[in-house]
Amino acid sequence: SSLFRRSCTSLHMEGTVSVILVQVNPGETFTIRTEDGHVQCIQGPAHVPMMSLNGSMPPIFVPPGYMSQVVEENGVRKIVILPHSTEYHPPMHPPPHLQHYMHPHPPPMLAHPPHPMYPPVPGSELHPPQYMHQHPMPPPPPPPPPLPQPRIYHEYGKIVSNIQARSAVLSWSHLVNSQNEENANRPVSFTFEVALSNCGKSGKFKTIYIILKFYISATYSSIEESTSEVISFTTESCEPDRPAVPKLVNRTKNSLILQWKGSNDNGSKIISFLLEWDEGKPGTFKECYFGHLKQYKLTKLSPSTKYSFRLAAKNNLGISEFSETVAFSTTGSVPPAPPPPQLNQAGITTLSLEWGPPTGAVTDELQFTYTLEMEEEGSGHGFKAKYNGEEPSCTLKNLRRSTSYKFRLFAHNSEGKSSPSEEVEYTTYPDKPGPPSKPYTKGKIRAYNVKVAWDPPKDNGGAEISKYVLEISEASNGSTWNVIYDGTLREHVCDHLRPGTSYKLRVYCFGIAGQSQASDILSIHTSAVPPGPCRSPYLANRAKPREISLHWAPPVVNGGAEIIDYVVDMAESDQTECRRVYQGPGLRCTVSNLLPGRTYSFWIKAANKTGFGPYSAKSQISTAPGPPDQCGTPMLTCKTATSVAVSWEVPLCNGAEICDYRLEWGKLEGSMHVIYTGPCLNYEVKGLTPATTYFCRVQAVNMAGIGMFGGTGIVTTPASVPGAMSLPRLLEGKIPLPLASTCLALQWDEPNCHGSEITGYNIEYGERQIVTVDRVTSYTLENLQPDTVYRIRIQAINSLGQSPFSQSIKAKTKPLPPEPPVLECVCFSYQSLKLKWGDGPNRISLSNSIQFNLQMEDKTGRFVTLLNGPCHTYKVQRLSECTTYNFKIQAYNEAGEGPFSDIYTFTTTKSPPAPLKAPKICQLGENLCEVTWEPLPPMKGDSIVYTLQLLSGRGADQVYKGPDTSFCFTNFQTNCEYRFRVCAGRQYQHNGGLQELLGAYSPSTVFSSQKKAIDPPQGEATAENKNKKRCLTDDQFAFILVVAFAIIAVLCAVAIQYFLIK
Predict the structure, then answer these.
(1) I want to staple 745 with a disulfide (CB 3.0 to 4.6 A). Which of 241, 528, 734, 811 is the partner?
(2) Is residue 311 within 8 Å of 274, Cβ to Cβ?
(3) Residue 88 Rama label (left phi>0; alpha psi -120 to 50; beta)
(4) Distance CA 373, CA 341 (A)
């Protein structure tokens, strides 16, 4: 049988109107129910056009064995009905009331809900179609062989809808008929061209639309072009189009005649026109004419005035838009003569003029054009135009200074040119005069005056010079200028000058326009004279007994030259002659070799290059008192071995009474220090060292100062008993440890013998026990009590007696070495032993200073140190199982090492078996499963047994114990979970009995009991086996939890970063 295929193409135009083309292939029947209820059958091949008012697809009944599919390509939606694939097994046929249809945006496959009815294309009597298969349809056969090429007929259905005043919706369909049966499909393209004419069927058509569409159809050999019949339609009427602007026909001073043309009436005759104007006031329009005429005259207008107009047309459907605004002006008369221009501002080369509108003019001054003419005085060229424009002002530039110019003004409008205004005359200002010539001197430049002259400027600026100004400035004052002359003369005598001073002179002049620039500068220098008198000299510093420092200032008047020399003269009294004490350029000098307490007179004078000036006034200055003279050598007398009497004589006082004496004393001549200050002439020195040489000297002091030291006296004290002993020292580490508990080693420094050699020492310790030794500086006290404190002091002995005892020191003997502690093992393991000591029943007193030496016997029989320190526990690791080890311990402290303890023996335990892997479970039947685990080899001849436990909520139940590595578990309930774990045990003989050492349990294994499904026939898997879930182990479940917590932590961190931090 032939293949039944239908495709619907929707061409969407304006609004919701859509045309649907239903294609019926050969061998098929398309059934439509009409309005009167009759059924119309259309045999294929045929194309049936249909239209939907709301854009939806009509309902389509799909025959059995076919399926509908919505396709959208390049904006065109299609419903294609295709047979199912060969692999599809059809289910029950759908009921006839189920419908296939297309929404505006459908999914690829649609359900079958109820659908509204659709009207046919205008001109057709068809109701919305109901697709019914008229005869049974066999399954689709394979494609037949190619048939001969068919002929194609073209028919068109056209619709004009939604007609508005300026728009209409055009829609059409394309119908293809074929006499031969189609057996193959290929895409064929159709181009639709729409042409429009507004002059009837005989008018010229213009293409307004071209579109290219594709759809699936039978194979064609050729395509023939055809043109549809002409369809006519009329658009709706509306308001007129926007008219053109009015045109000016004629104008006078008081009237305007306007004329216009009518615009397109758009199907309704224009009945009137509306003309508006702004009454010569821009911005607001008012009605000036409303009627059916196309011409209007406005009267009683103002001359030379601009008016704006706009026009609108009106028919029965409304009023059009206003035309563009157009402006026309009335005519006017020639303006009267304007007023003469007024001077706004005059300059040296510019004149700024301004004027008003002509007198009596009522129009705006901006409608006038002005012409300004100018005549230069004495030029002989007459008036020339200098400005032409609408602005009421003008600035003329590049004029001659101090020159008169005549001006007149004309006014223009559209009617002509006015008569000239009255002539006015304005003069430019003169310019500033140029600078005078450089001043020059007349005659000789003297110390106190000079005569200066100058020439007038070359350019007087167009006016007479009114006065000259002469300024002077000292070269030292920089830019400070002072006026010394102001008048019309061109010379002046500058007096009251200072000798030897540099001056600068300049001159400038004044004219009507102002001050000129200054002339070039003349520099002069007055001659110098000898300087004036200096001020009296004065003390630069405080006066000394034998010298005076003088200071003076330069003279106020230096005579116009630099001071190069000063002379200072001195006299001891008015009767003595003056003598020169200083000559030079400085301002300070020191006069020496004077006598203390004397008054001296001084004079000073200055000199420059021209000579010396006069002396200054006399200055009297007195010297200060002097210190005493040098004392004589003091007299020394030894009273005892530790005291000496010193006396001295009174020196010269040098004009001031002696108030104090200073006595210096020391063991070295170069390092003496003051031991006495006072008015006495003798002193006794005590606390000296016997048999020692001392040096001393004396100086006197008065109100003027301190005199020189006198000669140095030397004395030696007699010999005596030894000096006091220094503090003895205890020698640490000099005594061997075995003797440190009963001996103390001492050391001391030898004291001063005081002139008599030391012969021995007395050592006192304990309860006044004294030991006498020879002349040594160290000694060891023996036979002392252990751990005892002794107080020790020492004294020296010579031929004259015994020295005093030294300060005592405290020394303590060390305690005896400690006894070894009791060693015990507090924790046994198969590879380690934890040892502890110091807590047994024979506990000894341990302090923080006691340390221990723990040793263990190795394989060779010698003991090696394991620990050396203050710890009381130690764990010996890396040992072998079930092995005996020997240990001994020793205690030691600062007193030495104690004896080793007896040998202690400890044995390690047996090692437990290694932990097993999780057992494996295999279900053998509905009520039988086998649990297996890995075997372990025997451990040093000891057998291995296994314990299998079943975990439940109440705890763990042992289900098996024995040497086997598997166990069959029965009597379990279906659809339940069971957890199994297993551990290995080591059996060995101990104390005549069988002992067992259990290892760690393996991880648990989960077993879910289910009914074993019966295998499907022919090896096909059932749905139950496909959906069977695999149970997770504990490790997998823990891994999933860790990953989930990690993801939650990352999300929380991102949220905190985004919401809180940012």
Answers:
(1) 734
(2) yes
(3) beta
(4) 10
- Is pLDDT of 344 > 60? yes
**Domain 538-622: CATH class, spelled out:** mainly beta
Cite the residue boundaries of each domain of the chain with CATH code 2.60.40.10: 247-329, 342-427, 440-525, 538-622, 635-716, 729-812, 823-907, 920-1014
- Average pLDDT (430-447) is 91
Three-class DSSP category at 1037? helix
The rounded radius of gyration (Å) of the Cα atoms in the chain is 71
Instruction: Give the pLDDT confidence of 254-311 residue by residue, as tens digits.
Output: 899 999 998 888 888 999 999 999 988 888 899 999 999 999 999 998 887 889 999 9
The structural architecture, per CATH, of the domain 635-716 is Sandwich (2.60)
What is the pLDDT of the chain when averaged over all its residues? 80
Task: List the CATH code of the domain at 247-329.
Answer: 2.60.40.10
Closest CA to 79 of 67, 91, 90, 70: 70
Find the farthest-apart pair of alpha carbons in the chain and give their distance in angstroms, rounded.
176
CATH class of the domain at 920-1014: mainly beta
Residue 1013 has pLDDT above 60, yes or no: no
For residue 134, give the H/E element and its range: none
For the chain, the first-to-last Cα distance in angstroms comes to 73
Cα distances from 381 to residues 180, 340, 1043, in angstroms, run 109, 21, 110
Fold type of domain 342-427: Immunoglobulin-like (2.60.40)
- The pLDDT tens digits of the residues spanning 658-683 come to 999 999 999 999 899 999 999 999 99
What pLDDT score was predicted for residue 416? 82
Q: How far is CA 849 from CA 541, 642, 739, 812, in A?
A: 76, 52, 19, 16
Can you give the pLDDT at residue 124? 37
Number of Cβ within a 10 Å radius of residue 517: 13
Query: Cβ of 315: how many Cβ atoms within 10 Å?
Result: 19
Buried b (16+ CB within 10 A) or exposed e, 790-808: bebbbbbbbebeebeebee
CB distance 217 to 223 below 8 Å:
no
Q: In whole angstroms, what is the distance from residue 505 CA to residue 440 CA? A: 9
- Which region among 132-136, 187-191, 285-289, 384-388 has the lowest average model confidence (pLDDT)? 132-136
Q: Please tell me the predicted confidence (pLDDT) of residue 95.
A: 36
* CA distance linking residue 663 with residue 633, whole number of Å: 11
Q: d(Cα 858, Cα 880) in Å, to the nearest integer?
A: 13
CATH fold, domain 440-525, is Immunoglobulin-like (2.60.40)
CATH topology of domain 729-812: Immunoglobulin-like (2.60.40)
**Whole-number Å distance between alpha carbons of 265 and 313:** 9
Pairing mode, strands 943-952 and 548-551: unpaired
CATH class of 823-907: mainly beta
